[in-house]
Amino acid sequence: MKIIDSHMHLGECRIFGLNITEEQLVEYFDKYKITAAIVQPFPGAPDPREVHDRIYRLAKKLENRVYGMASINPHLGRDVVGRELERVLGDLGFVAIKLHTAGHAVSPTNPAASIVFEYAAKYKVPVMVHTGPGPFSDPMSVAPRAEEYTDVKIVLGHAGFEVYAAGALWLAKKYDNVYLEISWTPVYWLSAMINEVPGKVLFGTDLVENTPVELAKIESLNLKDEIKELILYKNAKEVFGLPI
Ligand SMILES: [Zn+2]
């Protein structure tokens, strides 16, 4: 069965003290039989533009295994952010944009975040919003944007991360354009989400070493094959418009 990991990073993160290299990603694809991953810079990347270039180069090298998700602090302003989003979505073929609420200290309702939704609408790509721990990360703040940008698919990263899981699920049920990416979600919430909105749940891991854990959680639920295929592969393929 094909597996798409909707939430993977490359590069250094000075906020959370992390680093993932190209070599680690290549190893992870083979070791865990990941068909493809949506790869984004960490919010604490010293230079997200340089990481976007690294993601692009890796995508070229590992054809159809890596797809780019742009992530740049919206507080850098419209000129800088607009130019970079235009470059990665227009020229480098990235398939999504990340809004890192906690890492970039930006609520989805902050006017600075508008540019992310504007470019997502323009390039018809989804926005992944970090939800869960950290400031500005209550998924309820996504509701006004889900109503304002009904054509933009919004993926709630970590599906509320347990603490806001109830709100995340409520939003996914209420809004056609809201989806759930399930890294770090406990199995009892996974089960509820998959039961209630099976067409909206996307597999994700966030970190290389978390990959076997997330796969084990899915296995533990004993899902029917067709449901498992939705979660691991088909939902992400559709949401991100992937050719695989
Ligand atoms: Zn992440």
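^ zinc ion complex. The mean pLDDT is 97. The pocket of zinc ion is lined by residues 7, 9, 206 (CB under 6 Å).
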